[in-house]
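[User] Could I get a sequence and structure tokens?

[Assistant]
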Amino acid sequence: MNEDKKRRGAPKKPTSEKRTARLGVVQVTEQQLGDYETAWELAGKRKSDWIRDTLDAEAKRTINKHKKTAK
């Protein structure tokens, strides 16, 4: 009988795609929060996706910049 029931929640992800680590808590001003909200809405993304994408892009830029100057 339980075999016929659909499982609730999101589908299982492969281990390589699971997000288990936390970045922590970042305090911002009301103005900053408003700007961030506007940005992720304009980008058509969820808050967590926008934050992750923005941080990933900046991390890549920083790493590439330092790789170039280290040569």
About this structure: The chain is about 50% helix and 0% strand.
